[in-house]
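Late entry, written up from scratch paper. The run itself happened at the end of the previous shift, but nothing got recorded in the book at the time, so transcribing now.
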Amino acid sequence: MKRFLTILAALALSACALGACGDPEPEPEPEPTALLLKNQTVRSSAMKQDMKYTVWLPEGAAPQRALPFLYLLHGYGDDQNAWAEKGSLVNIYREYAAAGGTPMVVVMPDAQTTFYMGDFETYFHEELIPQVEKLYKCNGKRALAGLSMGGYGTLYHALKYPSTFTYAYAMSPATAEWFTSLVAAQPDKRVFPPFTIEVGEQDTTVDNDAAKDLADYMTSQGLTVDWISRPGIHYWNFWQECLPKALQKAGESFK
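Output as recorded:
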């Protein structure tokens, strides 16, 4: 009898293991992993061609989860892959995330040599932004950052479309005197996002004095501008040191 009860207990345990004692615990869904998608395309009526962009989807990005976006702009002569291939975006972003940074989707458009103006401006606001934010699900918050020509684009778009962005970070930017007219054209200066303008003291490719004059004017008009001038030249090692700060500022502006 005792042996029979032992066998019965063993059979009961086997049945439980096979699910006879109730439904098994569901397998937890794996956490979505990060993904760098290079050379995605948008058909642009404004540019009359297919336009490329690269997008970084961070850990935790998922179709049902809306995240803020950072539009990260390249310099003259580069393309949509420059920040990933030369700027160490992925490694820098992962360090930022490991330190508790706010998750964000990073979109890197190809602007060719347009200085982010003309037909590109129409494409950027009317075609690229709506399409990628629908595809990768934006929560309605977006920031802007870029280097050199991309710094020019950052200043231009954040000054002309101030309510579109929560932060603007211009690295080694090219500038234009008429940028001041974009500031003057906005009667309510409270609509402008905060700015950072960061330049290298040994940079002879762009005009740091002109950038400082613009920063001073923006400050005089009530805009929030963080001016950073430090040792550095017009090169990737300088911008790689800018990027963690840009991610941090953008992340803070999304809260």
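The mean pLDDT is 90.
(Scratch paper discarded after transcription.)
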